[in-house]
Design goal:
Order of helices and strands: HHHEHEHEEHH
Number of helices: 7
């Protein structure tokens, strides 16, 4: 799905620049100019469509049944603990497509995988999702977006 769009953007958009790279692109100053690439509008559009395709989208290494990295496994477990139904989640295995693996990092401006999106909005990686789970914010976010049902509290507050 993504391969063709990324391949065309890769061949025409790999750029090296002079020392003014950091001044021209401050957001990407930490990236090596030789390794930096720019997503084509077609590639960006395909990723944008993908993150809006389902209520929750997870870009991970491996699949939910067979994660290929501990961070991806942790996010899958956190989503499972919070009761995210399989029909409300779409996963993409970035190990199957190198262009997607690199492109999603540029799209989100987040350097690591896994990456979680809720209703088209980037939430974060494993560390962010774990922190949100620990604070109760993940459950609230999933409820606000009707991904999971609100749980009834054990004792009503008066």
């Amino acid at each position: 799905m993504f391969r063709q769009a990324f391949r065309s953007s890769l061949s025409s958009s790999l750029r090296t620049t002079s020392t003014s790279y950091a001044a021209r692109f401050p957001k990407h100053a930490a990236l090596s100019p030789a390794l930096s690439r720019f997503l084509s509008q077609d590639a960006r559009s395909k990723i944008q469509d993908a993150v809006k395709e389902y209520p929750l989208v997870l870009f991970m290494k491996g699949t939910p049944d067979a994660p290929q990295c501990g961070f991806s496994r942790a996010v899958v477990q956190l989503l499972d603990i919070n009761g995210v139904p399989p029909e409300k989640i779409k996963t993409y295995d970035v190990l199957e497509d190198q262009e997607l693996r690199n492109g999603i990092k540029e799209f989100s401006e987040w350097p690591t995988i896994p990456q979680v999106y809720v209703n088209g909005e980037f939430v974060g990686g494993c560390d962010i999702v774990l922190g949100m789970h620990q604070s109760g914010d993940l459950e609230k976010l999933l409820q606000q977006h009707d991904i999971i049902q609100a749980t009834k509290s054990k004792s009503p507050s008066a």
